[in-house]
Design brief:
The chain folds into four domains: 178 residues, no CATH class; 122 residues, Phosphorylase Kinase, domain 1 (2-Layer Sandwich), CATH 3.30.200.20; 129 residues, Transferase(Phosphotransferase), domain 1 (Orthogonal Bundle); 232 residues, no CATH class. The protein has 30 helices and eight strands. It is mainly α.
Length: 786
């Protein structure tokens, strides 16, 4: 933590003079560059030695068993250093291309900051806690000499070198906080002394690390002079750091988690001791507390009986029904006094010397726990037992011990975010999935599968969506940063109203085309009038929901009014929406590969050309080729790595089974795919709608005295429709406007006209249609169509 804070403060100080070079930088660089020519080989040797040392550090984990996880730490630290270097460089005015050239180029330019040095420093500092002291000193010396050589060779100025060193240290510190490091661990001799400080006498030769370790906690086993086995937990020097990072991350990403950063080492030991005693008093079998306290050096220790075997280590054939019922009984007793364990897994459920099961490790336990924490305990115990004896035996034990109602209450929490990383990996390697476990539990209880509880505030999907929105906002800001908004207002005033009126009159025809798509998605006889009004009603509720979700939700209700089963109605709605997606993707691919005018990928905001059709040799197809190449590389990596290949194979098997099941359940609805006329109606309706939307966009553009090729307008409209539909923003408000502005500028439309056209088009196709959409909705409700 101290290294992280010092690095951030150092970069903050350098920001006052960045990017340089200052007079001092130039003086130092001049002195080193004027050294005798015989020293040039020395600088090159020192710089190469830095690269060789990092290569050596990367090779070491490959030759040491159990250390290959360090490669991930290196990769993470290097990635963080590069990302931080790029961010700082952009703030300092260094463009992206120069920064990337500074990392990969054979003759990189001197930039702020020294990105290559930052990445190498991150790897060296990340590896330091795992090396002996002499090797750590060697690494630091080599980095220092390599930094000096970088200045002498003109690869960076001193300010950039110093910033690169600080960025590398910051990245390594973050990795150590997130992943843990042995830097704060005590040696066996130090552990023996610390135990003596709290009046526990052990044989120092018996002290050894356990197989289970958590960042910030050091877990060891030891033996007293009387032969009694002990389990020793030590909160050492990095305990608060790990607690701080973990608490901040959990509070930001997990619902119901509160930020807890005030408890120190002693408070954590006192809390766990209190919970252990409270659970034991309630009749819960635990590892009895032997001693707890703080050593003279300030390390907090918790000592419990260590005569126990991890449940995960017990052979499956030795686990009987009595043991499974005992595990559920222990959990029920624990919950009866309001305690949630919050770490239940195969390493926290143990078997004591007498054969009875017990709970261990109450570090994260909560007293007066909320219902969600108790249900998470129940879900984790179910997964723990299923990993040992199989899902059916685990479910049967739960039904016999706690009943179907209690088991059903835990099913909404039966999801990956509830589990620890080790448990998630174990489930991935099992021959069943969490979904299969939940379905088996539903079959046992006889209830319906409940909706999953939202555990995570932040998910991978939400991060992707946030990144896309941030990228779009960045584009929008870059587009309008040089725009005179008074000029935009003047442009809006000069609009040709007749062209806008034509756009407004043509806009309702778009839904007339979409109605044919709805006709094609079902074999049921429908009337065109209600279906057309349905499309207008979709525009009305699209103001509150994303477009695809609005269309699906309303069509499902519409189909159900015709006596179609809910499953079939959902399938029809999905078919209708999917046909639109297929048409959109097909149009994009066709335009990109056919040589029709597309985007130039280099918007010219100052262009005044009225017709800016892109060249057939546009760089757009190369983007598609790049995406295909990346996809092929990712697939090759998945196939060549055995573990990834096994996961991919399992995923394909599960996916095929899921698709087969859905097809079987909705076979009556999918019959439309066998009817050429129905397929043509769906594809033709969506194709017509896309072309009509592009024409409306062209009419809005002509209202401001500009024009573009139809293929360009189709490309812009289709791409924006796809992108806005993926965003968690009702109607794509803001997102669509930015997308149309960018697309129009990409075909050479001046900035002020591009913004004006985007606003006019959205007014015509999104903000005005809810007026007649509300009328259509009332009519459909009055006549009980929805």
């Amino acid at each position: 933590m101290l290294l992280l804070v010092a690095g951030v403060l150092g970069l903050g100080v350098l920001a006052w003079v960045a990017p340089g070079p200052s007079a001092l930088d130039e003086s130092i660089a001049a002195v080193l560059s004027t050294a005798p020519g015989t020293f040039s080989w020395l600088w090159q040797l020192l710089y190469a030695l830095m690269l060789v040392w990092v290569a050596y550090l990367v090779i070491l984990p490959l030759a040491a068993r159990g250390r290959r996880i360090l490669l991930f730490d290196y990769l993470l630290a290097g990635g963080l250093a590069f990302a931080g270097a790029v961010g700082m460089s952009l703030l300092a005015g260094t463009d992206w291309a120069s920064t990337l050239d500074a990392l990969l180029g054979a003759d990189p330019p001197p930039v702020y900051l020294a990105v290559r040095l930052a990445v190498l420093t991150a790897v060296v500092v990340t590896a330091s806690p795992y090396l002996t002291r002499p090797l750590r000193q060697v690494g630091r010396t080599i980095i220092a000499l390599g930094a000096l050589a970088s200045i002498a060779m003109g690869l960076a100025y001193p300010i950039g070198i110093l910033a690169g060193l600080l960025m590398g240290m910051i990245a390594a510190a973050i990795v150590h906080l997130l992943r843990g490091s042995p830097g704060g661990l005590l040696t066996t001799d130090e552990v023996a002394v610390a135990l003596a400080d709290i009046s526990v006498d052990v044989d120092s030769a018996s002290i050894a690390m356990t197989s289970v370790q958590i960042p910030g906690e050091q877990l060891l086993k030891a033996r007293t002079s009387n032969g009694e086995q002990l389990l020793v937990k030590i909160y050492g020097r990095d305990a608060w750091d790990a607690q701080f990072v973990g608490s901040v991350w959990n509070s930001l990403t997990t619902r119901g988690e509160n930020l807890q950063i005030t408890a120190g080492r002693r408070e954590r030991v006192e809390h766990e001791s209190f919970v252990v005693l409270l659970a034991e008093r309630a009749g819960v079998s635990v590892l009895p507390l032997v001693a707890s306290g703080e050593s003279v050096e300030g390390d907090a220790l918790l000592v419990t009986d260590g005569a126990a075997e991890l449940f995960s280590s017990i052979p499956a054939n030795l686990v009987n029904d009595s043991m499974l019922e005992q595990a559920w009984y222990l959990l029920s007793r624990l919950h009866s006094v309001g305690i949630a364990h919050r770490r239940i897994d195969g390493n926290r459920l143990v078997q004591r010397a007498g054969g009875s099961l017990a709970f261990a490790d109450f570090a994260q336990a909560r007293t007066a726990a909320e219902d969600g924490d108790l249900l998470i305990d129940r879900a984790r115990l179910l997964v723990t037992l299923a990993l040992k004896v199989g899902l059916h035996a685990a479910i049967a034990s739960a039904m016999n011990s706690i009943g179907g109602a209690a088991l059903g209450e835990a099913l909404p929490y039966l999801q990956a975010p509830v589990l620890s990383r080790d448990m998630r990996h174990a489930v991935d390697d099992a021959d069943w999935s969490l979904e299969e476990l939940a379905l088996a539990a539903v079959a046992a209880t006889g209830d319906e599968l409940p909706a999953m509880e939202q555990i995570r505030r932040v998910t991978g999907r939400s991060l992707v969506k946030f990144g896309l929105i941030a990228l779009l906002v960045y584009w929008l800001l870059s587009l309008i940063s040089g725009v005179d908004f008074s000029q935009v207002v003047d442009t809006l005033k000069t609009a040709n109203l007749w062209w806008l009126v034509a756009a407004v009159l043509l806009s309702p025809v778009i839904q007339a085309a979409l109605a044919f798509s709805t006709f094609g998605s079902t074999m049921t006889r429908l009337r065109y009038g209600p279906v057309l009004l349905l499309q207008y009603a979709i525009q009305f509720i699209a103001v509150a929901l994303p477009a695809t979700a609005a269309r699906l939700a309303l069509e499902v209700r519409f189909f159900r009014k015709f006596g179609i089963a809910p499953g079939s109605a959902i399938t029809m709605g999905v078919i209708d929406s999917l046909s639109g997606f297929v048409v959109q993707v097909g149009m994009l691919v066709f335009i990109l590969l056919s040589g029709l005018p597309g985007l130039t990928m280099h918007p010219n905001a100052d262009s005044t050309a009225s017709d800016s059709g892109g060249s057939p040799n546009s760089s757009t197809p190369s983007v598609l080729v790049l995406i295909i190449v990346l996809a092929v590389v990712a697939l090759a990596i998945s196939v060549l790595i055995p573990k990834r290949r096994a996961r991919l194979k399992a995923l394909l098997v599960r996916g095929r089974a899921a698709v087969t099941g859905e097809l079987r359940n909705a076979s009556s609805s999918l019959i439309v795919l066998r009817k050429p006329s129905k397929v043509a109606s769906m594809l033709g309706g969506n194709l017509g709608a896309q072309i009509l939307q592009a024409i409306v966009l062209g009419l809005c553009l002509m209202a401001f005295g500009e024009s573009a090729n139809l293929s360009q307008l189709i490309l812009i409209n289709t791409a924006v429709s796809l992108f806005a539909g993926l965003m968690p923003v009702p109607g794509g408000v803001g997102v669509a406007e930015a997308g149309y502005t960018f697309g129009l500028q990409a075909v050479g439309v001046p900035s002020s006209i591009a913004i004006s056209t985007a606003l006019a088009f959205r007014l015509v196709t999104f903000y005005l249609p809810p007026i007649w959409g509300s009328v259509s909705t009332r009519w459909l409700r009055k006549h009980e169509y929805i």
